[in-house]
Write a structure and sequence with these properties.
- The protein is built from seven helices and four strands, in the order βαβββαααααα.
- The protein is an alpha+beta fold.
- β1, α1 and β2 form a beta-alpha-beta unit.
- The longest helix has 26 residues.
- The chain is globular.
- The two termini are 21 Å apart.
- The structure holds glutathione (GSH).
- The site of glutathione has 12 residues, from α3.
């Protein structure tokens, strides 16, 4: 299987973490989507990650790709439904994944807008408001002991924030989140996928 991605993308990292944990082999094809119009032949949305299966078919969007890899590798990152409590099981994991992915979306937009010449200042400020509000919610979040796709998404998003916004001292007012994140980064899959310049 081939994964179009790059070494900075928090979304490609989610897929690589799941694959690493499940011992699935992924060939990563380094892609800079904004600079490579040919990539639209793989994903018309022009976004990484995209997974090309051995039969040539393509899966896009990291939640879809991660669920496919989880299924293929017999993983438990997508828990089953829990009819007794919505705050556990599948909906909790998917809800947390949405929060982590939303944090990554805002951080990616904040960085990309910063590279453009004429962006209204309030566009970027709104992304930063999303980043800080989401980190504040995560400080109060109870994470699962056995990681789900939610914990993976959150950790990859925070990894991206730490990498791209090193001067933002998100840890100072969020000691519980910082301690949880540092523990999570000890997983071999996290160590193997530390973000670097793409
Ligand atoms: N919802 C998508 C988001 C993917 C995404 O935004 N990827 C960024 C790179 S980290 C991208 O390809 N941006 C290029 C663009 O938006 O044109 C996912 O979870 O895979």
């Amino acid at each position: 299987m081939k994964l179009y991605g790059n070494s900075a993308s928090p979304f490609a990292r989610k897929c690589q973490v799941v694959a690493h944990e499940l011992d699935l082999k992924l060939e990563v094809i380094r892609t800079l989507p904004v600079q490579d119009e040919n990539f639209r032949r793989v994903n018309p949305l022009g976004k990484i990650p995209a997974l090309v299966l051995d039969d040539g078919s393509v899966l896009i969007d990291s939640p879809v790709i991660c669920e496919y890899l989880n299924h293929l590798g017999g993983g438990k990152f997508f828990p089953g439904n829990n009819i007794f409590k919505n705050s556990s099981g599948r909906w909790k994991a998917l809800g947390l994944q949405a929060l982590g992915d939303g944090l990554a979306d805002a951080a990616v937009a904040f960085i990309m807008l910063g590279r453009e010449a004429a962006v209204p200042e309030n566009y970027r400020a709104r992304q930063m408001d999303t980043i800080t509000a989401t980190l504040d919610v995560l400080e109060r979040t109870k994470f699962a002991e056995t990681p789900t796709i939610g914990e993976i998404a959150v950790a990859c998003a925070i990894g991206y924030v730490s990498f791209r916004l090193p001067d933002m001292d998100w840890r100072a007012s969020r000691p519980k989140l910082a301690a949880w994140y540092d523990r999570f980064c000890e997983y071999p899959a996290m160590k193997a996928t530390v973000p670097t310049a793409p």
